[in-house]
Amino acid sequence: MALTDETTLLTVDVWADVLCPWCYIAEARLAAAIDKAEHGGQVELRLHTFVLDPDFPTEPRPVVDYLSGKYGVAREVAEGMERKAARIAQEEGLPYEVGRSIRSSFDALRLMHLAAEHGVAWELMREVQREAFAGNPAAFDHDTLVEIGGRLGIPEAEARDVLASDRYTAEVHADHDRAVQLGATGVPFVVVGNRFGIPGAVSTEQYAAVIDEAWEQIDGER
Q1: Are strands 61-62 and 101-102 parallel, antiparallel or unpaired?
Q2: CATH class name, domain 10-221
Q3: Domain locations in the chain?
Q4: Which residue of 5, 97, 103, 220 pairs with 135 in a disulfide if CB–CB is 3.0 to 4.6 A?
């Protein structure tokens, strides 16, 4: 999907947290929009990390309990929020387990920066998300992250070195700060062609429309 040579004419920058359900949904829609675009092969898709909640628990916790506490709502309300997200995700063909547990994604986000050096940050994000939202309680365990990274070509020794250290911590914070500077108050946040900012999870058609408009502007400037 992403090209980095002279044929790349349009950049699409995506800020996301692997724990964010709306990022999970938005990424699937954006990928579909790019795949359908006339010039989709000339899009460079660039992933940037965003820490959705620095206070996420480091130990697994039921997502409904976490949401109930974070937003100060009854568990029934929190479960309703999750069921709504699950329904939308499933409409996009994505696995989604309402009863899953969550934990801090910071190590996974740091690993995304190593993945970017190997050209597979987008792929790693989406693979880890599928594990997490499908309900794998070990989705953010180091062994799981290393195994997923290995399938994508990230050497095990490099991945373990990152996860055993604080490497890429500064890069995660820098990505977050850059999104805030651009006006993001949360994620997903998408910037198309350094021209159009798209907050939130919009439809595939809306992503496609913005991509088309960016292409038209580029063509008009030649």
Answers
A1: antiparallel
A2: alpha beta
A3: 10-221
A4: 97
